[in-house]
Design goal:
The protein is an alpha/beta fold. It has helices at about 15-25, 35-45, 55-70, 95-105, 130-145, 160-175, and strands at about 5-10, 30, 75-80, 110-115, 150-155. β4, α5 and β5 (about 150-155) form a beta-alpha-beta unit. α1 (about 15-25) crosses α6 (about 160-175) and α3 runs parallel beside α4. The longest helix is centred in the last third of the chain and has 17 residues, at about 130-145. It is globular. It starts with a strand and ends in an 8-residue tail after the last helix.
C-alpha cells in the first residue's frame, strides 16, 4: 500500500519548493490543486477565482482526482496539501465543509512546513504575511483535530528541509509497529 505524506503550511512557506526538491531526488509527488485551479480560472479571464461559488469544490474535485490516480506500485507519495487543507478556507457548517470532511483520506504523516518569515503576493498567492501565519496555525489545528501529529519543518535551506522530512520517514520506518501511535 502506498504511503501518503502531506506537506502543509501557509502560503509562501516553501511547500512547493520542498516538494520539487523531493521530486528531483526521485520521489513521486502530487502538486497543489488550488494553485492549478486558480491558474485555470485566470486563463479563462476570471481574475479572482476564489470569489467564485464553486471554487473550493473545484479544488476538492481536482485533489480527489489526483490522489485517486496514484499508481499502485508507488511505495510513497508526497502531496502538496491534503484534502483537509481546504477546511482552512471554508466556513464550518457549509455544504463544502461537509464534503471536505467526508472526502478526507488517511495520510501516513503530515509535515507542517513553517513560514519563512515573509510572504510575497502575486496573481495566485494573495495572502499577507499575517494571513499566512494565521493559515499555518489553522492548518496545524485542523490536522491535529483530525487525529494527526503534525511534524514541524522549520525554516532553513531547501536541501535541509527535504533532508529533515526524509530523516523523519526513515526514523519512523525503523520503529516497531506496536510502538507507533497516531
Amino acid at each position: 500500500m502506498t504511503k501518503k505524506y502531506i506537506l502543509t503550511g501557509g502560503p509562501g512557506s516553501g511547500k512547493s519548493s520542498v516538494l520539487l526538491e523531493l521530486e528531483a531526488r526521485g520521489e513521486y509527488i502530487i502538486r497543489e490543486a488550488a494553485e492549478d485551479v486558480i491558474i485555470r480560472y485566470q486563463a479563462q479571464g476570471i481574475e479572482k477565482p476564489w470569489e467564485e461559488p464553486d471554487f473550493q469544490d473545484e479544488i476538492l474535485k481536482l485533489q480527489i482526482q489526483r490522489e485517486n490516480r496514484i499508481p499502485e506500485n508507488i511505495a510513497r507519495v508526497f502531496i502538496d496539501r491534503g484534502i483537509p487543507d481546504g477546511l482552512a478556507y471554508v466556513q464550518s457548517g457549509t455544504e463544502i465543509h461537509a464534503k471536505i470532511i467526508k472526502e478526507a483520506r488517511h495520510y501516513d504523516e503530515v509535515f507542517l512546513i513553517e513560514n519563512l518569515g515573509q510572504t510575497q503576493t502575486n496573481e495566485v498567492r494573495r495572502e499577507s504575511q499575517s494571513s499566512a501565519l494565521e493559515l499555518e496555525r489553522k492548518l496545524e489545528e485542523i490536522y491535529q483535530d483530525l487525529g494527526y501529529y503534525t511534524q514541524r519543518i522549520p525554516p532553513g535551506k531547501l536541501k535541509e528541509r527535504a533532508d529533515k522530512i526524509l530523516q523523519y520517514i526513515e526514523h519512523d520506518a525503523m520503529k516497531q509497529p506496536e510502538t507507533e501511535t497516531r
